[in-house]
Amino acid sequence: MRQVIHGHFWTLLPQLAHTIVPERAPRDEPWETHLDDPVMGRLRLTGWIRARPHHDTLFVLIHGLGGGHDSRYVMSMARACDRAGASYLRFNMRGADRSGEDVYHAGTTEDLRAMLASEGLARFSRIYLVGFSLGGHIVMRWATEPGRDPRVAAIATVCSPVDLAYGAEAIQRPLGRPYQWHVLNGLKEMYRAAVIRRRPLPASLARVEEIRTILEWDDEVVVPRFGFASRQAYYDSQAVGPRLAAMEVPTLFIAAEADPVVTAEQVRPWVAQASDAVQVAWTGGGHIGFPHLTIDGADAGPLEPQVLRWLLRW
Questions:
Q1: DSSP string, 197-252
Q2: What spatial distance separates the first Cα and last Cα of the chain, rounded to whole Å?
Q3: In terms of residue numbers, what domain contains 286?
Q4: pTM of the model as a whole
Q5: Are strands 41-50 and 29-37 parallel, antiparallel or unpaired?
Q6: How many domains does the chain have?
Q7: In this predicted model, what pLDDT tens digit does every residue of 18-75 receive, in sequence order?
Q8: If we measure between CA atoms, which residue out of 177, 178, 124, 174 comes closest to residue 151?
Q9: pLDDT digit string (tens) for 238-281?
């Protein structure tokens, strides 16, 4: 019980602190590119970039489900990049900026491909991807697919799911429902914006407003929008867990023992089968919230500088 309380405390505390005193982004600039989607047509992908002159290395930061470029953890990592004198991009998956472009799912790697291929990032010769929660799943999924951009030297994921079916069911337990409610609020904001833009989405806004679980969201929105045969077919085809054994890109996988959202029980069986390219760092704390972190025997400290140091080894 003590560990359970610890996990919830460290999940909620950073967000509460951010609500009281919002994390402020360093000075960066709007960024965008485009993606041609077979259903929606031309989609705009956006973000905020700090591209330092004469720097050829870039850190790309990818938010979790229902989040965006202004999520607390993305802002915190951006500030760490800025303090380190590094260039970074706070990237939005399609529609995550609430512009009404579209919705995304756990395997929408087309967005990462379009972002990496954009003219605005052409000058960078070395790129690192940092994904948080579902953003980390998308990053790992991209890293296990053919045709990877060779400029991506390594990736880091923080509290990321690997078994989509397990995760969607596990968050239905009573102590998981507040987090589900928070994620769904963000997803519904995206959907409202897309409806206003008159995008050809599968469910009415009235029906989406009634959705109370991730399972319903996947049934009513993800499956018909992206042409999956069923919710289970979506989970089975897109989950990255079975792909970790073949991972070739150097990967830092950070997981919290008491994470109430992406539980250790979901993660352990899959990371145990991962290739040698995957380094797993277990820590105390909750979902993207930690009292301290130790990677490679370094002194315990904040997440962000340790992640940056690890990535820069590659």
A1: TT---SS-HHHHHH--SHHHHIIIIIHHHHT-SSHHHHHHHH-SGGGGGG--S-EE
A2: 39
A3: 2-311
A4: 0.96
A5: antiparallel
A6: 1
A7: 777 777 878 899 999 999 999 999 999 999 999 999 889 999 999 999 999 999 999 9
A8: 124
A9: 999 999 999 999 999 999 999 999 999 999 999 999 999 999 99
Among candidate residues 299, 296, 293, 223, the one with its CA nearest the CA of residue 255 = 293
CATH at 7: 3.40.50.1820
**Strand-pair partners of 289:** 286
CA–CA separation, 213 and 217 (whole Å): 6
Give residue 3's region: left, alpha or beta (phi > 0; psi -120 to 50): alpha
Tokens 């820069």: give the residue: 312
Q: What phi and psi, each to the nearest 5 degrees, are found at residue 265?
A: -65, -35
Q: Are the C-beta atoms of 35 and 45 separated by less than 8 Å?
A: yes
Cα 61 from Cα 179, distance rounded (Å)? 22
The residues with which 33 forms a beta bridge, in sequence order, are 45
H helices present in the chain, as ranges: 2-20, 72-83, 110-116, 134-143, 164-170, 177-196, 205-210, 214-217, 223-226, 231-238, 264-271, 303-311
Burial zone of 180 (CB within 10 Å; 0-12 exposed, 13-18 middle, 19+ buried): buried
Q: Tell me the C-alpha distance between 218 and 225, whole Å.
A: 10
